[in-house]
Amino acid sequence: MSGAIAIAGLRYRYHDGTEALRGVSFQIALGECVGLLGPNGSGKSTLLLHLNGILPDKIADGGAVRIAGEAITATNLESIRRQVGLLFQDPDDQLFCATVEEDVAFGPQQLGLRGEALVTRVEHALGMVGLAGYGHRATHHLSHGEKRRVCLAGVLACEPTVLVLDEPTSDLDPRGRREFKALLQGIPATKLIATHDLEWVVELCSRVIVLDRGVVVADGPTVEVLNDEALMLAHGLERPHSLRHHHPH
Amino acid sequence: MLKDWLGHHHGHHDSLVHRLPAAGKLWAALAIIVGSVLVPWGWHAWFIGVSALLLLVAGLSRVGLWFLLRRLLLLSPFVLGVVLVNALQAAVPGAWLALAARSAICLFTVVLLSNTTPFGKVLAALRSARVPALLVTTLALMHRYLFVLLDESERMRRARASRTFERQRRMRWHLLGTVVGQLFVRASERAERIYAAMCARGWK
Amino acid sequence: MHIPDGFLDGKTAITAAALSTVGVGVALRQVRRELPPRRIPLLGLAAAFLFAAQMVNFPVAGGTSGHLVGGVLVAALLGPSAAIVVLTAVLVVQCFLFADGGLSALGANLFNMGILGAGGGYLVFRLVGSRLRGLRGQVTGVAFGGWISTVLASIGCAGQLAWSHTVPWSAGFPMMASVHMVIGIGEGLIGALAFLAVQRTRPDLVAERQPTSTGVLPGGMVRYGLLAALGLAVFVAPFACPWPDGLEAVAAKLGFDAQATSSVVHAPVAGYRWPGIHSAAGATALAGALGTMVVFGLALLLGHLLVRKPTQEPTKAATKEPPC
Question: Does this model's pTM top 0.90?
Answer without folding.
Answer: no
